[in-house]
Write a structure and sequence with these properties.
Helices cover 34% and strands 8% of the residues. It has 13 helices and eight strands. The two termini are 34 Å apart.
């Protein structure tokens, strides 16, 4: 279906680019190969991907990258969602016995795609607030509220406030977003209103039910030096989990996956996951044509896409009991 291809293309934006030879088969019982395009930069989940699908593959830009990467060798692979929601998506940064810093606190400067400097500074501010709280003999939310005060008086707050609406500006597409974001930067982050609404990423998925019948699916990208199949990416990410432990990916209602989700969204978890963790497989106990969800939790590269993009918000990512996961040694 066209929407599934759209999500397949989007999954590629989460993976690392690389060179020739990505099509090598990684043996795995019961699992096949699924090529994924990786020739586009990371982008937001709220973009209209249909135009991109219609134009892929091809174009001078692709040819240029083909020339650059031709003859290269895949060394490492990885995937990670970018927390680019910005200022208006920040959670409460403190509570009883905890503070939130770095990416978890949405400290990324989305226009610059840089967050290390703000993460370091948030850690310093948090450390100062914790020190003051411990000196007062308490670690409750009231004692740690100084973290918020320190943040609001810091250069980090000023930097994020000035770009507070830039991410939302791209909701209507790239070129309108460039114009709106440029105007916002000149106007100190404000265009028509101080706060533009932030929608959950999964709310941008297009429902399949009610859509007109689509034509044939676009072909999957060829193994042309700019593509990588998902299981090869898992192997080169060094993803290792204890197979016999309980899955750290908890789906609250698997019946919903084979019923509503199959009809309304075409089980998008199979496509936006860059590690082929989720598969809809035949269910012999359910009769002819019945499907059920199978979770390959040991493939997980901890990108958190499923926790964010699940349209029903029934997937919860938890820390694996064996502390397993990808081994990003060269990235």
């Amino acid at each position: 279906m066209a929407e599934q291809e759209t999500l397949e293309q989007h999954a590629g934006s989460l993976e690392r680019k690389g060179g020739k030879g990505f099509g090598a088969e990684i043996p795995a019982a019961g699992r096949g190969r699924e090529p994924v395009a990786v020739d586009r930069p990371v982008g937001g989940h709220d973009r209209d991907e249909r135009a991109a699908v219609a134009g892929e593959p091809g174009g001078a830009d692709r040819d240029t990258r083909q020339a650059v990467f031709s003859g290269g060798k895949l060394l490492q692979a990885g995937a990670k969602t970018v927390p680019e929601g910005g200022y208006w998506s920040q959670p409460r940064l403190h509570g009883d016995g905890f503070v939130i810093v770095g990416d978890a606190g949405s400290f990324l400067n989305a226009p610059r795609l840089k967050g290390i400097h703000t993460a370091i500074e948030s850690g310093k501010l948090a450390a100062e607030a914790i020190h003051r709280a411990l000196q007062s003999g308490s670690s409750d939310a009231q004692a740690l509220s100084g973290y918020g005060d320190l943040y609001r008086s810091s250069w980090v707050h000023r930097e994020l406030w000035s770009v507070r609406n830039v991410r939302q500006a791209f909701g209507a597409g790239f070129f309108p977003g460039v114009f709106r974001a440029g105007w916002m930067l000149l106007a100190g982050g404000k265009v028509f209103a101080d706060r533009l609404p932030v929608r959950p990423d999964h709310s941008h998925l297009e429902r399949l039910d009610g859509r007109p019948a689509s034509g044939p699916e676009p072909p999957l990208p060829s193994q042309d030096g700019l593509t990588i199949d998902k299981l090869t990416a898992v192997f080169h990410a060094g993803a290792i989990h204890e197979e016999n432990q309980p899955s750290h990916l908890v789906v609250a209602d698997t019946d919903l996956c084979r019923t509503r989700c199959a009809v309304e969204y075409g089980n998008p978890c199979q496509h936006f996951c860059p590690a082929r963790v989720y598969e809809m497989v035949d269910d012999p106990s359910g009769g002819p044509g019945a499907k059920k969800l199978h979770i390959n939790h040991s493939n997980c590269v901890h990108c958190k896409t499923c926790d964010i993009m699940d349209p029903y918000e029934i997937i919860t990512w938890k820390v694996p009991s064996d502390a397993g996961g990808p081994k990003y040694l060269g990235l």
